Amino acid sequence: YGGSSTFCHFSLAMVEQCLRGEELRARHQAALLKLRKKALREKAGAELAWLGHQKRCLENLQDSKGASAMAAKQRKILMELKQEQAEIQHLQNIYRAAHQERKLLLKQQREILRMRYSTSQLQEKLHNLAG
Questions:
Q1: pTM of the prediction?
Q2: Contact criterion met (CB below 8 Å) for 15 and 106
Q3: Segment 7-56, tens digit of pLDDT
């Protein structure tokens, strides 16, 4: 296991491939969360605009009870938007930390494999010199 340079090359290539795959997944995850954030803002903006229109119509009809109900709905939508944004930020932080941890583990594995490869190369040289 430790002395096979072919295995070390193969293992190192696998670690490199895992690292590239992890980086790609992290970029995709970040893009998805960014899209989710944008969609939330757009949805909330449309709902707020619609409620604002309804509120103005009710105010024009001098329906203060209905207008205040629309204002309460607007506040609720803003609170929900803030909660969703906080959740997305929390997920981004979790994904970022997990990505960094996996990246560090893969880099450590790469270094271990490089050291094993160097050791096997030295052992081969010593064996050749002794032989």
A1: 0.68
A2: yes
A3: 666 777 787 788 788 889 888 998 999 999 999 999 999 999 999 999 99
Domains of the chain by residue range: 2-130
Residue type, 57: C
Q: Specify the DSSP element, H or E, that contains 119.
A: helix 64-130
- Measured CA to CA, the distance from residue 57 to residue 26 in angstroms comes to 47
Q: Judge contact between 3 and 123, C-beta under 8 A.
A: yes
Report the b/e string of 32-44 with b at 16+ CB within 10 A. eeeeeeeebeeeb
Q: Nearest-CA neighbor of 37 among 93, 92, 74, 94?
A: 92
Sign, Cα dihedral of 123, 125, 127, 129: negative
